[in-house]
């Protein structure tokens, strides 16, 4: 598939996600005007607010207007404070991105050496079991335990690092399982068998296996992003990181449709961008794909 | 292999130890039994005066649980907004004592009622020399502008119904405001004591709901908004333009910490100085924690109470006897123990206990399961299956629902608990699409219950669909009675009638512990806020 076509498919995917998200958000129960006015608002006030928020027209017309604005990179204005959704998201993006990157580095920093060690010794069932048990660690409780142990609070590298460590239960077992499986497969492959036949040391065999599986491992990185974005809300509250997770939580509570939709679009765009980047980088990692692309 | 096993075991043990520490209240390292924080019990007359000597300056870091969307109380309805803004950033025309309810001067130095009947007027004389934080003078036109905004039915201000009796609003000069009162207006002064005055010169023609002003409001109070770091903190600093005695503190940092348990850890670490509400179990631990010696725990009862609301439109809940029987199945002592660790006061009606409107002769709900079961057996139609609409995330309501479910089951009634977020609960209540729910209501010092119980408020706040001609008549008379004693007598009659008809089962007013770090004094916690303008650093404190 050409790069242009891949990019086109990515944009089309984003459009489909945006349209589905629009219907899900708009048709979900809960009235934004009612949520904004609380217990005291009269029906007149709710009606006036619905008018002001543009909740009157047909859903298809509103979808058209929203998509047209989206094409201009305009995500609309928050129902709650009237601020531009784009500004709100850009303001909250850095802590969450930092958290995601740190969590990925930590997960890979832990998973890769363990998986390599496992590959060198030809498997370890008990280790596999122990890693799967990490899933069972409750993230919010782990976050509170770290805070009790003195982890920093508020926007800082220390708090980001502690929060990233708390996300490990969400991604470490998955990353480890993927890496271990990829290495197992590669070590059973032709390249590894040939190397073993010529008497290459085990470390070299594993190194080659890792190189063979590089593309697959990179793909694993790109698919971790949605899990990290959704997991962010669990730790951002405890460590005082003003990121996208908390913004999403608040937007959901007050039915702030433009912010909810903006977050879905940005989350989807980030995930698609990562996948696309891996896709486009694939020929650099695997010469066979490069040749195939030329052909 | 042995190394891997050891590492895995150590990792798991570490997590288990961490979680164990947290389950004991996240006390952190070094918790020991001993003399800790001092409990200051605040009675109906308020908290005891702080006799310590104040020192000028200092920064107070206050825990804020929910970051408001904006700081305009006309459109931002969260309690935190009022707590941050009222008489701290923005001034009100009058001031109400949070304990006695007495109305005193604030921006208005004095006021007088003149005329009779439909031609009465209420004239306010405004203080001279009051300026907004941007230096612009505050005058009667600003007050008139604010009142007109608050009366706009499209804005949805909480104070609107209290301002309905006001006719024409005029400002003959910048120090005089005249309100025409074609009819009685018993709740007007109280409403004016909780209505922040907005600057006309900045907001004329501006939609408050989307105004950037609400992120950096310009008021005339003792503090001005210096910074707002979204999701992190709001910083107030002493306003040099304030007309009254300057606030003792240089700055107040309102630190947003969503998780109450995390906030308590930060407080213990000395990263917060004031916590308005402690997590479960923290107060008892603080009293024993020697690291918190010199800290104060202000134990007070805000004007908020829990109640069970029955949908009187459901045929099986229409009869007062059936609702009363169901109410007697609420195990109040157990609810107080489970949800509030024994720190809550039973409440028998929708008025502030200890005020003249509250009839002390009416006993709170008694837990009488046998009598309730007998009464339910005679009910026609008999409730067999009910759904309890619970606000997700409200631990107390969820605990209540669980207790009620157990007792109703023994009485042959199946209670299904449906958890929804508050906004959806509200939607369902407005449509009367529920059987039973439990909510918490914060009362005004003098509570006008017209909206909650009058039949004409069905579709608005009278979510239970309660309609009774006797109660309607009483509520109407309260709204047209200016004489306070006569009004309070009517309030007590409403209290009795509601006790008899049982549209709600009134439950408890929980106590709250507010923690203040050693080195600070002057906190006066109440439902109206913390009185930050009076908080001071104690002289000689580090």
Characterization of the model:
The complex is a heterodimer of chains A (295) and B (542). By secondary structure, chain A is mainly alpha-helical. Chain A has a domain of 154 residues. In chain A, helix 7 packs across helix 12 and helix 9 crosses helix 11. By secondary structure, chain B is an alpha+beta fold. In chain B, the strands form 7 sheets. Chain B has a 5-stranded mixed β-sheet. In chain B, helix 10 runs antiparallel to helix 12. Chain B is globular. The N terminus of chain B is likely disordered. Chains A and B meet through helix 2, helix 3, helix 5, helix 6 and helix 7 of A and helix 1, helix 7 and helix 13 of B.
List the helices and strands and how they pair.
The complex is a heterodimer of chains A (295) and B (542).
Chain A: H1 3-27, H2 32-37, H3 43-52, H4 59-71, H5 85-120, H6 125-133, H7 139-148, H8 157-166, H9 168-187, H10 190-197, H11 202-212, H12 214-239, H13 244-253, H14 257-285, H15 287-294
Helix pairs in contact in A: 1-14, 5-8, 5-9, 5-12, 5-14, 6-9, 7-12, 8-12, 9-11, 9-12, 10-11, 12-13, 12-14, 13-14, 14-15
Chain B: H1 2-23, E1 38-41, E2 54-55, E3 59-64, H2 79-85, E4 94-96, E5 103-105, E6 108-114, E7 120-126, H3 140-151, H4 160-163, E8 169-173, E9 176-181, H5 188-192, H6 200-203, E10 223-229, E11 233-238, E12 251-256, H7 260-268, E13 274-275, H8 282-288, E14 296-300, E15 304-310, H9 320-327, H10 332-340, E16 344-346, H11 369-378, E17 385-391, H12 395-410, E18 414-420, H13 422-430, E19 436-442, H14 450-453, H15 469-479, H16 484-501, E20 504-506, E21 508-510, E22 512-516, E23 520-521, E24 536-538
Characteristic terms for this protein:
heterodimer, A: 295 residues, mainly alpha, 15 helices, globular, B: 542 residues, alpha+beta, 5-stranded mixed β-sheet, 4-stranded mixed β-sheet, 16 helices, 21% strand, disordered N terminus
């Amino acid at each position: 598939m050409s790069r242009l076509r891949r990019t086109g498919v990515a944009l089309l995917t984003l459009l489909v996600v945006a349209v589905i998200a629009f219907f899900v958000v708009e048709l979900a129960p809960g009235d934004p005007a009612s949520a904004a006015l609380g217990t005291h608002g009269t029906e007149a006030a709710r009606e006036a607010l619905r008018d002001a928020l543009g909740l009157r027209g047909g859903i298809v017309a509103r979808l058209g207007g929203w998509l047209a604005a989206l094409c201009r990179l305009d995500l609309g204005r928050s129902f709650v404070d009237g601020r531009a959704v784009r500004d709100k998201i850009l303001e909250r993006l850095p802590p969450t991105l930092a958290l995601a990157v740190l969590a990925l580095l930590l997960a890979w920093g832990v998973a890769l050496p363990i998986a390599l060690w496992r590959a060198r010794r030809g498997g370890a069932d008990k280790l596999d079991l122990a890693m799967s048990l990490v899933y069972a660690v409750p993230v919010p409780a782990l976050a509170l335990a770290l805070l009790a142990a003195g982890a920093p609070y508020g926007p800082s590298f220390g708090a980001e690092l502690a929060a990233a460590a708390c996300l490990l239960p969400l991604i470490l077992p998955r990353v480890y399982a993927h890496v271990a499986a990829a290495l197992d497969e590669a070590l059973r492959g032709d390249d590894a068998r040939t190397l073993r036949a010529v008497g290459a040391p085990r470390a070299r065999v594993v190194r080659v296996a890792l190189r063979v599986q590089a593309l697959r491992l990179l793909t694993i990185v790109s698919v971790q992003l949605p899990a990290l974005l959704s997991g962010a809300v669990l730790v951002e509250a405890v460590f005082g990181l003003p990121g996208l997770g908390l913004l999403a939580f608040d937007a959901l509570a007050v039915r702030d449709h433009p912010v909810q939709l903006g977050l879905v679009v940005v989350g989807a765009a980030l995930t698609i961008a990562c996948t696309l980047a891996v896709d486009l980088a694939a020929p650099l990692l695997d010469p066979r794909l490069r040749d195939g692309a030329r052909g | 292999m042995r190394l891997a096993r050891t590492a895995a075991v150590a990792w798991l043990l570490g997590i288990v130890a961490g979680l164990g520490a947290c389950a004991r209240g996240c006390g952190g390292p070094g918790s020991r039994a001993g003399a800790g924080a001092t409990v200051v019990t605040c009675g109906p007359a308020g908290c005891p005066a702080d006799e310590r000597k104040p020192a000028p300056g200092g920064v107070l870091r206050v825990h804020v649980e929910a970051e408001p969307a904006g700081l305009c109380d006309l459109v931002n309805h969260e309690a935190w907004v009022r707590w941050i803004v009222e008489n701290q950033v923005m001034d009100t025309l009058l001031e109400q004592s949070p304990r006695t309810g007495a109305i005193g001067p604030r921006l208005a130095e004095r006021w007088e009622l003149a005329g009779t009947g439909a031609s009465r007027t209420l004239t306010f004389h405004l203080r001279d020399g009051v300026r907004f934080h941007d230096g612009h003078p505050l005058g009667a036109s600003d007050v008139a502008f604010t009142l007109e905004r608050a009366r706009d039915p499209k804005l949805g201000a909480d104070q609107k119904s209290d301002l309905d009796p006001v006719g024409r609003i005029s400002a003959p000069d910048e120090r005089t405001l005249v309100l025409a009162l074609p009819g009685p207006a018993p709740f007007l002064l109280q409403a004016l004591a909780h209505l922040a005055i907005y600057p006309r010169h900045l907001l004329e023609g501006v939609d408050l709901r989307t105004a950037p002003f609400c992120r950096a409001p310009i008021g005339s109070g003792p503090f001005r908004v210096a910074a707002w770091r979204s999701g992190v903190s709001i910083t107030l600093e002493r306003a040099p333009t304030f007309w009254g005695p300057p606030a003792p503190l240089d700055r107040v940092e309102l630190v947003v910490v969503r998780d109450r348990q995390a906030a308590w850890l930060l407080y213990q670490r000395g990263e917060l100085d004031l916590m308005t509400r402690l997590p479960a179990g923290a107060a008892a631990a603080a009293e024993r924690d020697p690291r918190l010696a010199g800290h104060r725990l202000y134990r007070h009862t805000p004007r908020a109470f829990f109640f069970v609301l029955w949908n009187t439109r459901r045929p099986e809940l229409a009869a007062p006897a059936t609702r009363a029987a169901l109410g007697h199945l609420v195990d109040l002592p157990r609810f107080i123990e489970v949800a509030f660790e024994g720190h809550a006061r039973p409440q028998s009606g929708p008025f502030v206990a200890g005020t003249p409107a509250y009839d002390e002769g009416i006993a709170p709900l008694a837990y009488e399961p046998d009598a309730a079961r007998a009464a339910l057996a005679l009910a026609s139609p008999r409730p067999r299956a009910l759904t309890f609409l619970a606000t997700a995330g409200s631990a107390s309501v969820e605990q209540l629902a669980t207790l009620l479910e157990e007792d109703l089951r023994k009485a042959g009634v199946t209670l299904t608990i449906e958890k929804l977020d508050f906004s959806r609960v509200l939607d369902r209540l407005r449509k009367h699409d529920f059987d039973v729910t439990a909510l918490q209501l914060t009362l005004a010092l003098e509570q006008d219950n017209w909206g909650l119980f009058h039949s004409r408020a069905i579709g608005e706040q009278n979510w239970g669909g309660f309609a009774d001609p006797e109660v309607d008549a009483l509520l109407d008379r309260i709204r047209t009675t200016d004489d306070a004693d006569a009004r309070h007598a009517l309030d007590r009659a409403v209290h009795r009638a509601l006790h008899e008809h049982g549209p709600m089962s009134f439950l408890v007013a929980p106590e709250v512990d507010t923690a203040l770090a050693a080195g600070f004094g002057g906190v006066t916690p109440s439902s109206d806020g913390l009185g930050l303008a009076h908080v001071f650093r104690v002289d000689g404190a580090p």
